C-alpha cells in the first residue's frame, strides 16, 4: 500500500535539522531573550548577505511588510497603487489598510502582472506599483523598473513567494525601492509561525521602516511617529537562521524534482506546464499546471490520496471588499484552470513519479 502524498507536510523536516533546531531552542530558553536580541540581528544580517541588499528589517509577517513599505513611502488617502488581479489578498489588503486605492491589472498566462497593460492605468494619483513574483517566478524587473522610473512611481516588490530567485545577477526583492518578504511556514524559507522581512537600499527608508515596525521609536521611549508593533519573535528568527543554512540544498532538491515533473508530464492531454521553472529567475515555490479539467483532476488525485492546492480560486477585484467592474479575462480564466501539484524538498523522486502516473491515468480515462 502506498502512503498518501500530502501537498506539504512540515512535520517531515529532516530529523538531523530538527535536532539542530531543538538545540537552538534550548539555547534560546537559557538566554531568556524572546523579542529582539542576537538571533534577530543575525537573521537580518543573513538576509543582507543572501539578498545583497544594504538594509534588511525583520518583521512580524509579509502583510505588515507591505503595509509598512507603503507607509514608509508616505502613500495614503487619494493615492493609487497598481497591483495584480491574481495574487494572495495581502497585496491589495495592505493598500487599503493605508487608505490608498488598489488599481488592478490583469496578468499574463503565467500569472504575472501584464506589463503591457500598465500604461492605461496611470493617473496623476498613481504613486506606486506592487509586482508580485507569483508562484516564485520573477516579473521582468528590468522592464518594469525602466517604466516605473520614467513615470516616477515607486516600486514595492511583493516577494512573499519568490525568495532567492535571481534576474540579471540581482535577487528578487532587491530591484524595487522596497522589497517585502513573507516567511510564513509554507514558503521556501519558512518560519515556525508568522514572520516577514523588508529590504531596501535607501538609508532614509530603512530608518523609517525600523521606526514603523517598533512603535515609532528610534531609541527606547522616543516615539518620533505613530507606528505599530510588527517586530519578529526571537524564536522565529532563531528557527529561520537554522533553516537558512539548508536553503540552497533545499532549492537544489526542488529544482531536481521540478525537472522530473516537466519531463514526465510533457505532452499529456491539455495539460499546460509552467514556463521558466528551471531558470534562476524562478525559485520553484509552486508547480502550477493549467487544465480545462482542473476540478476533475483534483478530485481524481484526491481519491489517490495525492494532495493539491489552488492558487487562487478567485481574483481579488471580484471579492466584495475590493470589487471592481473591470474585467480581467486572463487571471479570471486562470482561477478556473490552475492546479498546484505537490513540490517540496521533503518529497522524493518516487513520489513525483507516482503523481505523474496518476495524472497519466486520469487523462487516459478523460480525453
Ligand atoms: C503574494 C503574497 N503576498 C503577501 C503575503 C502575506 O504574507 P504573510 O502571510 O506572511 O502575511 C503572502 C503570503 O502568503 C503572499 O503569498
Question: Which key terms come to mind for this protein?
Answer:
367 residues; Aspartate Aminotransferase, domain 2; seven-stranded mixed beta sheet; single chain; two-stranded antiparallel sheet; 13% strand; Aspartate Aminotransferase, domain 1; 2 domains; binds pyridoxal-5'-phosphate; alpha/beta
The CATH topology assignment of the largest domain is Aspartate Aminotransferase, domain 2
Q: What is the average per-residue confidence, as pLDDT, rounded to a whole number?
A: 97
CATH superfamily caption of the largest domain:
Type I PLP-dependent aspartate aminotransferase-like (Major domain)
Rg of Cα set: 21 Å
Number of separate strands: 11
Strand-and-helix sequence, N→C? HHEHEHEEHEEEEEHHHEHHEH
CATH architecture of the largest domain: 3-Layer(aba) Sandwich
Q: Ends: how far apart?
A: 28 Å
User: What's the shape?
Assistant: globular
- What share of residues are in beta strands? 5-15%
Amino acid at each position: 500500500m502506498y502512503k498518501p502524498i500530502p501537498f506539504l507536510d512540515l512535520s517531515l523536516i529532516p530529523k538531523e535539522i530538527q535536532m539542530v533546531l531543538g538545540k537552538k531552542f534550548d539555547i534560546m530558553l537559557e538566554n531568556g531573550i524572546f523579542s529582539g536580541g542576537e538571533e534577530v540581528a543575525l537573521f537580518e544580517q543573513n538576509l543582507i548577505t543572501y539578498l545583497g541588499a544594504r538594509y534588511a528589517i525583520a518583521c512580524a509577517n509579509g502583510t505588515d511588510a507591505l503595509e509598512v513599505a507603503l507607509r514608509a513611502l508616505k502613500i495614503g488617502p487619494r493615492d493609487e497603487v497598481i497591483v495584480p488581479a491574481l495574487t494572495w489578498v495581502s497585496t491589495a489588503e495592505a493598500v487599503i489598510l493605508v487608505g490608498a486605492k488598489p488599481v488592478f491589472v490583469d496578468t499574463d498566462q503565467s500569472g504575472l502582472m501584464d506589463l503591457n497593460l500598465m500604461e492605461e492605468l496611470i493617473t496623476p494619483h498613481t504613486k506606486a506599483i506592487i509586482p508580485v513574483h507569483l508562484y516564485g517566478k520573477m516579473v521582468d524587473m528590468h522592464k518594469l523598473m525602466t517604466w516605473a522610473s520614467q513615470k516616477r512611481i515607486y516600486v514595492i516588490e511583493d516577494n512573499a513567494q519568490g525568495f532567492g530567485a535571481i534576474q540579471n545577477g540581482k535577487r528578487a526583492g532587491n530591484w524595487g525601492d522596497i522589497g517585502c518578504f513573507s516567511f510564513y511556514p509554507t514558503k521556501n524559507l519558512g518560519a515556525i509561525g508568522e514572520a516577514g522581512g523588508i529590504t531596501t537600499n535607501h538609508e532614509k527608508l530603512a530608518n523609517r521602516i525600523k521606526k514603523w515596525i517598533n512603535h515609532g521609536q528610534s531609541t527606547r521611549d522616543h516615539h518620533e511617529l505613530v507606528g505599530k508593533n510588527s517586530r519578529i519573535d526571537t524564536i522565529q528568527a532563531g528557527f529561520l537562521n537554522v533553516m537558512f543554512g539548508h536553503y540552497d540544498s533545499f532549492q537544489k532538491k526542488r529544482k531536481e524534482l521540478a525537472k522530473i515533473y516537466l519531463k514526465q508530464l510533457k505532452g499529456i492531454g491539455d495539460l499546460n506546464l509552467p514556463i521558466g521553472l528551471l531558470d534562476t529567475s524562478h525559485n520553484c515555490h509552486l508547480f502550477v499546471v493549467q487544465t480545462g479539467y482542473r476540478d476533475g483532476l483534483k478530485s481524481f488525485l484526491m481519491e489517490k490520496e495525492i494532495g493539491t492546492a489552488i492558487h487562487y480560486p478567485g481574483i481579488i477585484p471580484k471579492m466584495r471588499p475590493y470589487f471592481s467592474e473591470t474585467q480581467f479575462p486572463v487571471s479570471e480564466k486562470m482561477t478556473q484552470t490552475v492546479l498546484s501539484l505537490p513540490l517540496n524538498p521533503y518529497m522524493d523522486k518516487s513520489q513525483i513519479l507516482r503523481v505523474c502516473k496518476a495524472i497519466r491515468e486520469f487523462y487516459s480515462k478523460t480525453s
